[in-house]
Design a protein that fits this description.
Elements lengths: L13 H55 L9 E8 L4 E8 L13 E2 L8 E4 L5 E6 L2 E3 L4 E5 L5 E2 L8 E7 L2 E10 L4 E6 L4 E3 L1
Antiparallel strand pairs: 1-2, 1-7, 2-3, 2-4, 5-6, 5-9, 7-8, 9-10, 10-11, 11-12
Length: 201
């Protein structure tokens, strides 16, 4: 220690000090590299969770509306509410107006706007995320798949037969996390896709 109170390194220790500094710098580089490498994964997983949560909320809302809302002047033949999965990234919410009273969904012409709205409510899954539907033992594109809920909140097919579906949302560029939504006879639940089933969390 000199007169000013500062510690002066010993001359013979300069190499040791340099090695310690080098080790610290290398440790910082490794930590920063790990953060950069996994940062995209964390961001991607968060986006998958957010998109799944929004779709789950829309399904719950549509089911609740089917149970609580009745026909009106705009939709006199209301049979329920539905969601049409138009593609891997877009879906539409609607009221099912059975215009020809045949008790089955006959296409987009029988889709009416939600109560109090003046245009179709269309939602988008943010790029690069996508939706898939479990079909047999594999995941397929949901192209124009329709999910209907009747006045009792029971999920129905276009021909009004009972329906059970599993929807999966993931990032095709990154398989870190796949969220899923399982629609069964009496409930809708969110979980994590394990490669073959929707595992409830």
């Amino acid at each position: 220690m000199n007169k000013s109170g500062f510690i002066v390194p010993l001359a013979g220790n300069s190499k040791g000090t340099t090695l310690v500094e080098l080790a610290i710098v290398l440790a910082i580089v490794v930590v920063v590299g790990a953060i950069v490498a996994t940062g995209y994964g964390f961001l991607s997983a968060d986006r998958v969770k957010s998109a799944s949560r929004e779709l789950f909320g829309d399904l719950q809302r549509i089911k609740h509306s089917a149970v609580t809302q009745g026909p009106d002047a705009a939709v006199p033949q209301l049979r329920g509410f539905g969601i049409r999965l138009e593609s891997a990234r877009t879906y539409r919410l609607f009221r099912f107006n059975d215009a020809n009273s045949n008790f089955q969904y006959d296409g987009a012409a029988e889709e009416a706007f939600l109560h109090g709205e003046t245009s179709a409510r269309q939602k988008e899954i943010p790029v690069p995320l996508e939706m898939r539907i479990k079909s047999g033992g594999k995941l397929v594109s949901p192209q124009n798949t329709v999910l209907l809920f009747d006045h009792l909140g029971i999920p129905r097919q276009a021909n009004m037969g009972f329906q059970q579906k599993t929807l999966v949302i993931n990032n095709p560029d990154n398989d870190i996390l796949k969220k899923c939504i399982s629609i069964s006879f009496n409930r809708i639940r969110e979980g994590q896709w394990d490669g073959s089933n929707c595992r409830e969390q």
